[in-house]
Each structure stands twice: as C-alpha cells, then as structure tokens.
Amino acid sequence: MNEYDSNRIYDLTKKVNYTKTDRIDEADCYVLNTCHIREKATDKVYHDVGRVKKKFKDKKKPIVIVTGCVAQAEGEILLKREKYIDAVIGPQSFHQLNNTIVQIEKNFKRQNVTNFDVINKFDTLNQIKNSCNKVSSFLTIQEGCDKFCKFCVVPYTRGAEYSRSMKELLIEAEELADNGAREIILLGQNVNAYDYNGKKLSDIIHEISKIKKLKRIRYTTSHPIDFTNDLINTHASSNKLMPLIHLPVQSGSNKILKSMNRKHTIKDYLTLVDKLKKINPNIEFSSDFIIGFPGETEIDFNETVKLMKKVEYINSFSFIFSPRPGTPAAKMIKVDDSLSKKRLKIFQEIAGGIKLKYRQNLFGKKALVLFENRMKNTNKFFGRDEYSNAVVVRSDEDLIGKIKEVKIVNGNQNTLFGEDYHKFNKKEYAA
Ligand code: SAM
Ligand code: SF4
C-alpha cells in the first residue's frame, strides 16, 4: 500500500511543480513514506533522515517531510527528536502535502498533519490522474481496520475501515489499463471487508474483469473471517482472478489466535481452505505468521508448524512478534527473545523446505508468465506466473506486457528461470 501511496504522493506534488529525481544529492524536497508495522521501520526513518542531513551538510537544507504510519503514530516524537524534519503527515492526510510544502517554502513553522481525513483524501486524489505505468499496478480499494488484533497498529494509524466508491475505482482501473497495466492488484488492509453500499470485493472483480486490456486480477490482504461465499465463488467464475490466495493466519494455535483477537479458530480456517480448494483445485495459499506472540509455548509453536505442513503454503512471511506502542499486546509478557529467534529459524527452515519442494516440482512444466520489465542491459525479461512466482526468461522479442507460455527449467528460492515454450517441441513438456 505504501508503494501505491508513494505514487499518488508523486502525482500530487506535480501540482506544485515538483518532479521525481534520481539525483538524490540535489533534491529540493524529500518525502519519506513510512511503515510502522514492525519496529525496524521507525529506526529506518531516523537513519534515512540522518543520511540526508549528512549529504546536505554544506548545502542549503532541503525540505524534509515524513509521511505514512510512522508519522501518524510518532509524529510529535519525530518532530521533537529530529529538528531536520519539517513536517509529519499521516496516511489519511497526505492530500495536504502540497499546502504543507508551500507553507514550508514560505518559511512557516513546522507542521504536524495527522488528522483522519480519508474522505477528503480520496476526493482530492480522484481529481488527479493516476500516472503509474507499470504492467502490474496496485489499486487501493479499501483502507483501515476495525478488527483490533492485539498486536497490530493499523487501526490506530490508518483508522477505521473505509471503502472507496465502485465508480471511482473503475475509473482509476481504466486509467491504469490505458497507462499499460495488464494486471491490477486490489489493495486493502482488509481487502475482502470492502463494502460500498452493499457492493463487495467480488462485484469489483467482476466489473474490473470487463476491462479488455486487463488480463489478471489479484487482491491482498484478505482476512479469513471476511471470506464470504460470493468471493469464494468468484474463484471459479472469474478467469482473470489469479489462483494464489494470501490468507494470513498468524498462528496455528487456537489459544494464541484467541489471545490475538483473530476471531476464528484453526478449524474455521481449514474449512475455508477446503472450500476454496474444492471450488478451484488450482488454488494455492500464502500466509503471514507471527512467531513468539506473548504466551506462545512450545506446544503452540508446534501447532503453527503443523499448520504449515498441512496447508503447504507456497510462500510465507514470518516475523518475530514486535511490540507496537499503544497496542494491547505491547503490555503483555514477552516470550524470551532468544527462544523466539530459535523458533523463527526452525519455522523458516520448514517453510523454506516446503517452498523449495513446490518450486522443484515446477521444473520441466509449463507456466503462464506476464512479463513486467527487461532486466538492465540484458535480453532477459522479468515476469510472474499465475502464482506470483518471479520468472526470468531470455528473449530477443520484447516481452513486456505480454503473457507467454514458458517452460520452467530451473530456479532457486526467489527466482525461476524459463525458456520460451514455443521454441521447443510442445510434447516434451508436461501439461
Ligand atoms: N489485515 C491482514 C490480516 O489481518 O491478516 C494483515 C495486514 S498486517 C498490516 C500485515 C502483517 O503484518 C500481518 O499479517 C502480521 O503478520 C504482521 N504484523 C502486524 N503487526 C505485527 C507485530 N506487532 N509484530 C509482528 N508482525 C506483525
Ligand atoms: Fe491489523 Fe489485519 Fe488485524 Fe486489522 S485484521 S488489526 S490490519 S492484523
């Protein structure tokens, strides 16, 4: 979502005559768009501001603005601790960026803009064309969260759930397709909680599918409790919806899920996985896991390992619990750091083994790859298969924006390497 926001911030600032630059030593204004989901992100802000400060030691100070969730959560602290920062702007107020820049240019005092103004934000952004011209483009359809998982800052930094109108989303999706998008990734902190006057995520998928130039649709991140039957059915009825579902579970232990306030059990989760597999057997899953949540015992951890082995996630994101200031879990008794680290290592080894086995199984088989870009100074093209696996193929033909049948020849944990399927005898390959 921050990538989407950063692009929109750029679209906005063009109105006050700023443009992107690669010559970062000469920038007149820095906008650091930040994430607050885990602790390291905040440290990075201070580090990055420090780097700018150093670069401009003997030059005129540029404008430095911190936007995003760190600004929302720690705005006052940032302004106090780092005098080099001119303004902090929360994720629901970044439409006020241009005013802020103009005021700083006029030597107004430092600014703290952290009101929750999501309606005005999107009203402003809807007037400005989305200039993103990537083959795979993000489109935020929903923001914020009302679920209050005990570990998570999102309800405090992005605010309450808000769904954008279907009409504005379709206009933006058309815009992106006209700019060259062939895939759209619908975004939301709880993307499947989307509800605009009764219109659901499944309605958006069906409407967006009608845009001819768009070939693929994905969505992220969905919460298990918002997975309604209409969305499940869309995985059978839409041929543009990709078969990889990111379905965060966080833990395999019912006790921990309850303590996290996740509002479902492992049985509920597995029932949902089964339903989805039944409606479309090609579906695979990826997930997020938090290791070492307060109260996690060896038994709870083993339940998480058991779930990983049962679902055989083809990709996963696992992190040690990071206490976020202001969240209920920050006050709970932490699992010993060294124990959490040990568990994370074990977990990631098991998850990595499952992923590797899955990937090795793809060798020699055919994949449908949408190519996104050419790798610098080579004739290699980067794309993704239907399961979002990164695939690199050598080709003399310009593949950008095209979907090609590719034979996967080998690969590692991060990248698969393929060949143009049609250059070879089709019979050689498995279907
Ligand atoms: N809304 C999605 C859901 O409920 O599944 C998740 C969105 S959250 C912004 C992205 C991921 O960050 C979560 O799935 C969780 O694994 C991770 N995360 C959030 N807070 C965390 C914390 N305090 N410590 C470690 N990981 C955290
Ligand atoms: Fe955070 Fe997701 Fe829980 Fe909302 S549902 S509080 S975004 S983890």
How is the topology of this model organized?
Layout: H1 2-13, E1 29-34, H2 40-55, E2 63-68, H3 69-81, E3 87-89, H4 97-105, E4 111-113, H5 118-126, E5 136-140, E6 142-143, H6 154-157, E7 162-163, H7 166-179, E8 183-187, E9 195-196, E10 199-200, H8 201-209, E11 216-220, H9 229-237, E12 244-246, H10 254-260, H11 266-279, E13 284-291, H12 298-311, E14 315-320, H13 337-360, E15 366-374, E16 380-384, E17 390-394, E18 403-411, E19 415-420
Parallel strand pairs: 1-2, 2-3, 3-4, 5-8, 8-11, 12-13, 13-14, 17-19
Antiparallel strand pairs: 6-7, 9-10, 15-16, 15-18, 16-17, 18-19
The structure holds S-adenosylmethionine and iron/sulfur cluster.
Keywords:
5-stranded mixed beta barrel, binds S-adenosylmethionine, alpha/beta, Transcription Regulator spoIIAA, 431 residues, Rossmann fold, single chain, disordered C terminus, 21% strand, 4 domains, 13 helices, binds iron/sulfur cluster
| Outline type | globular
- Provide the helix percentage: 25-40%
Small-molecule binders here are: S-adenosylmethionine, iron/sulfur cluster
User: At CATH's second level, what is the architecture of the largest domain?
Assistant: 3-Layer(aba) Sandwich
Q: Rg from C-alpha positions?
A: 23 Å
**What is the average of the pLDDT values?**
94
For the secondary structure, the number of strands is 19
Q: Distance between the terminal alpha carbons, to the nearest Å?
A: 36 Å
User: Strand count, sense and closure of the main sheet?
Assistant: 5 strands, mixed, barrel
At the third CATH level, what is the topology name of the largest domain?
Answer: Rossmann fold
CATH secondary-structure class of the largest domain: Alpha Beta
Strand line-up of the largest beta sheet: 15-16-17-19-18
